[in-house]
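Dig into my protein:

:::
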Amino acid sequence: HVQLVESGGGSVQAGGSLRLSCVASGFAIDSAYVRWNRQASGKGMEYLGGIIPDGSPIYADSVKGRITISRDNAANTIYLQLSSLKEDDTAMYYCAKGLLSGQGTQVTVS
């Protein structure tokens, strides 16, 4: 049973940083491309980046320089770090593998 569970969201002050976690089950994260997306209220899904099986991260231009995606194979967990937060970063953040997404974790920047 493939599942993704995000955590780590909450309220953050502008200028601060966040670290989100995505615990995967049912597959090994080093065997798949796992990505992070976000969706702000009233807007479409935005791709942020991901990490490919060899461990190399890929970042969207919109957040490059502020984002770090990493993983812990032993914990089967993928991480998203985002710094210099702005109110525009307020959104529901999801990790995804193929068509499967987790339930998301809400981040509110004020």
